[in-house]
Structure formats: C-alpha cells, structure tokens
C-alpha cells in the first residue's frame, strides 16, 4: 500500500473520530475522553494523545465547558514537556493559565504555575522556577489546601538547594513533612530535599542517615531516578569528608542503574571529577569522554523528540487543513514527505558530523594520553635509576665505614695486645728482681720497684685504651651502661674485646686467663644480659 494512501486513511480516521467526539453531550463524557488522552500520554503515545486532546479542546471551547478546556490544554502542554519541547509546552500552559484566571479559580491557577516552575527548573533557570513555585505556594496557602502547600513547599526546597540556600530550603521542608504523610511519593521527595539540604549545611552525619533510610524505601523500578539522586548525595557526603573510595563506590552504584540519559551525563560528570580528584587521570578522561558521548546522545534524542514534535505539529496542521480544504490534502502530504526526507538528510548529516567530530576528539585525547603515559614512564625510569645510584653509593659508603671501623678496631686490638704484653713483661721483671737479695738490701732499687708496681695498679694505659675505643665506637659504652646498669668495669672491658670481634685466645692473652675461662665468662655475661638462645653475644652487641 503506498505511504501517501496510508496517510490519507489516517486523516480520514481522524475526521471520523472528530465526528464521534462531536456527539459528546455532557462534560462527564468529555472528561472520560480527556482521561483517555492522559493515559496515552503516560504510555508515551504522544502523537495520539495530542491529537485526541486537541479535538477535545475544540469541543470543550465550542460548548464553553471551561474545566474541560483547561484540562485538555494543560495536558497538551504536558505532552510537549515530556517531548522536551519546552517552548511549545509554555504556550499551552499559558493558554490554560488564561482559562483558569478568566473562568475558573486559584486551584487551577496554582496547578499551571507549578508546571511552569517545573519547566524553568528543568531549564536550570532557578530564579524563574522559584518565582513560579512561590506563586503556586501562596495560592495554595490562600485556599488552605494543605496537601498542595506541602507539594509546592517541596519544590521550593529543591530549587533553594540548587541556589545554595539551605536555610530557606530547611524552612520549606519542615513545613512540608507534616503535610505529606498521606502521600508517600511526595514525602520521599521531601526527604531527598532534606538530605541534600543537610549536605549543603555540612551536617554530613544527618544527611547520610536520611539518605541511607531513603535507599531502603526506593526498591520500586519507578524510583530509579530518585535512587540515582540519593546515591549521588551519599557520594558527595563522603567526598566532602575526603572518603574518596566510599564516594567512588556510591558513584559507581549510580552509574550501574539503568537511568535516563540526562542522569547518566550527570553521573559520568561526577565520576570524571572524582577520578580527577583521586589522581586517576586515565579513568577521569574516559568518563569525561562518556559525558561528551552522553551529551551528544541526549542532543540526538532531543533532536529526535523535536523531530517527533514537528511531525505531530505537521500532522495536526495537515489534519486541520483537511477539514477546511480537502482539495489541498495531496499537496500537503507531498510537503510532509519532502520535509521528512529533508529532515532525515539533515539528521544523517548531523550524525555523521558528530561521529566524525567525536572520532577526531577521541584520537586527539588518545594521543595526549599516550604522550602523558610515555612522559610518566620516562620520569619513573629516571627516578628508579637515581634511586639505584643512591642505594649503590650508600652501600659503598657503608662498606667504607665498616672497613675503617675494622681497621681502627684492629689497631685498638694491637694496642691492647701491646699493653698486655708490656705489663706482663714488667710483672716478670719485677718478680725476677724481687728474687735477688742484693736488690732487697738496696733501698733505692726497692723504691723503683714499688713505683713500677704502683704504675701497674693505676693502669693509666688502659684508661687511654678506653678513650680511643670511644672515639672509634662513639656512644657504644654509654648505651651499654644505660641498657645494662649491673655490668662491672671488668665485664665492660671483656665486652669491648668481644665487640672488636677478638677470638677467645686473644681475649685470654689480654686478660691473662685461659681460653676455657674466657668461654665460661662469655656464657656468664650472656646470661647476665638475658640474650635469647638463638642470638650470639657478638650479634646482640652489634645492634646496641
């Protein structure tokens, strides 16, 4: 069947439906048809809904049924709002507002004012949105409609939050909550606004408690948009407290929900900023690309909706023209087809241009990322090389100091051995001389021998040895005495020989004792120091 003929049949069907609507004799029957048009709107059959509501509006105007004129006009505007054609929506809202002012009352007026406020809120014109919400709120108060006061107070709280006015938002929320207990859907909206308000006030604990409580209530599929909102609030709460990993967890939960393209763009933008704050630049760039792609997709969807709007408008105009001038129908159909072809060509051209632009941007970003990664890798390798060189120098310096210490300790050992042998020699000479009777009869020689013995007892040479030991091993003896205050001077002297890594034989020679006595003394000192069985005495001393 030719497409033009199908369109012609559709127009005839509309003419037939108009004749049927004209048979509506009462406002009640017309209300039923308006309800049908509203159902079509919520089923996203906007074209059918608008056509039906326009026909009903015409019938209501003819019969001066102003309540029905208001309802049909208002819901035509609502259709255009859902199609993102806000300009057309405003036109029909204003028409409904004029009907309400001239023929109805404040109840209808405040409904239109609230819808206009929602339009401005969607367009991010918060000043105008608050202005219209305020007018609706005042009218609801004037007629003492408590439920509507609660509805509009919630809207005022949400827009106040967007304007960073948490004190104003708090006053509206406190007024709204008691009025909305019978309406759980709007009550949830109020709690969401309250959570966001406490976040702005930096009362993070209270805000988080409310948000977590909301999550347990948002289990229905229809609450996905609200769930995304709550997840983002929780993410911002943890971000403000510098709990970035927890903030990221909530951001990813929001991302995983199958939500609208507008919310995806917001979530991707938040994740991009969060990854940037965490220093994960690669993921930040990926999500920034996702924001661009989501924005492009949203633009494309809006273009499609606008195209659908234009198509609906064209069909309506064509329908009206069919009623007045049936001879022009074929020419209008051809115009319609040409318009579709032209718009399709423009749309295809636009899509190709967007894809090409995105491809170029992606390549540029990839090149930038590759260059940054190469630079980071080069910097990392340079730093690693410098660290290795520093470690090598440190090891060489440590080895040099160790060798110097061993040399100095060996010199001390040689000096100690020399002192020991010298003292032994002096003692042997004294013993040998003391055996001769001639010397015992000679007072002068006896005096000299006493001086030698006195010199051995004072042992100033050993004091000099300890002075040199402290110079080579600074602070060791002080740390040893501080840690083990029960050690005797004899123990300390024995420990110094062990610290210099002298053998048992060498220590026995210095102290004029047997090697066996030296080993026993070593065991006694180990027990005195409470050294574990798996640790040697020299290892323990090296760590002091």
TrEMBL record:
Domain of life: Bacteria
SUPFAM superfamilies with a match to the protein in the record: C-terminal effector domain of the bipartite response regulators, TPR-like
Transmembrane regions listed in the UniProt entry: 336-355
Record's keyword terms, sorted: Membrane, Signal, Transmembrane, Transmembrane helix
Signal peptide: 1-24
Presence of the UniProt keyword Membrane in the record: yes
Keyword Membrane: yes
Official protein name in the record: Tetratricopeptide repeat protein
Species this chain originates from: Winogradskyella rapida
């Amino acid at each position: 069947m030719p497409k033009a003929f199908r369109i012609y049949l559709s127009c005839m069907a509309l003419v037939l439906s108009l004749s049927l609507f004209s048979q509506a004799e009462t406002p009640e029957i017309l209300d039923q048809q308006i309800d049908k048009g509203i159902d079509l709107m919520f089923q996203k059959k906007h074209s059918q809904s608008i056509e039906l509501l326009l026909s009903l509006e015409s019938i209501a105007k003819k019969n001066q049924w102003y309540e029905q004129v208001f309802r049909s006009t208002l819901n035509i505007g609502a259709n255009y709002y859902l199609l993102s054609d806000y300009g057309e929506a405003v036109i029909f809202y204003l028409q409904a507002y004029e009907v309400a002012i001239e023929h109805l009352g404040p109840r209808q007026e405040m409904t239109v004012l609230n819808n206009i406020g929602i339009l401005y809120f969607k367009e991010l014109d918060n000043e105008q949105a608050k202005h219209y919400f305020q007018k609706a709120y005042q009218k609801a108060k004037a007629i003492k409609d408590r439920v509507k006061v609660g509805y509009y107070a919630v809207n005022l709280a949400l827009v106040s939050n967007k304007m960073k006015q948490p004190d104003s938002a708090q006053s509206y929320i406190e007024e709204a909550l008691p009025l909305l207990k019978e309406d759980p859907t709007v009550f949830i909206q109020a709690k969401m606004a309250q959570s966001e308000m406490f976040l702005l006030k930096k009362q993070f604990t209270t805000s988080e408690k409310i948000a977590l409580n909301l999550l347990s209530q948002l289990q229905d599929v229809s609450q996905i948009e609200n769930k995304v909102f709550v997840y983002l609030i929780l993410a911002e709460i943890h971000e403000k407290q510098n709990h970035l990993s927890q903030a990221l967890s909530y951001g990813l939960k929001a991302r995983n929900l199958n939500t609208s393209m507008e919310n995806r763009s917001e979530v991707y933008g938040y994740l991009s900023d969060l990854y940037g704050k965490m220093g994960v630049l690669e993921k930040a760039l990926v999500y920034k690309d996702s924001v661009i792609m989501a924005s492009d997709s949203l633009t494309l969807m809006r273009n499609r909706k606008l195209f659908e709007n234009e198509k609906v408008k064209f069909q309506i105009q064509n329908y009206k023209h069919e009623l007045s001038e049936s001879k022009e129908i074929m020419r209008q159909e051809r115009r319609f087809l040409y318009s579709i072809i032209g718009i399709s060509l423009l749309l295809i051209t636009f899509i190709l241009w967007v894809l090409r632009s995105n491809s170029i941007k992606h390549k540029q970003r990839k090149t930038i990322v590759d260059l940054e990664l190469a630079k980071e890798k080069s910097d990392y390798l340079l730093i690693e090389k410098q660290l290795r060189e520093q470690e090598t120098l440190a090891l060489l310096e440590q080895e040099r100091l160790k060798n110097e210490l061993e040399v100095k300790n060996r010199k001390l050992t040689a000096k100690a051995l020399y002192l020991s042998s010298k003292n032994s020699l002096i003692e042997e000479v004294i013993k040998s001389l003391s055996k001769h009777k001639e010397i015992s009869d000679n007072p002068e020689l006896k005096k000299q021998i006493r001086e030698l013995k006195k010199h051995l007892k004072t042992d100033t040479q050993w004091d000099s040895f300890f002075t040199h030991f402290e110079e080579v091993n600074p602070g060791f003896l002080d740390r040893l005495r501080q840690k083990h205050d029960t050690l005797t001077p004899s123990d300390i002297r024995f420990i110094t020989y062990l610290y210099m890594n002298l053998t048992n034989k060498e220590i026995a020679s210095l102290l004029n004792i047997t090697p066996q006595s030296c080993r026993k003394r070593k065991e006694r000192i180990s027990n005195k120091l409470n050294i574990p069985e798996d640790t040697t005495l020299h290892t323990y001393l090296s760590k002091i």
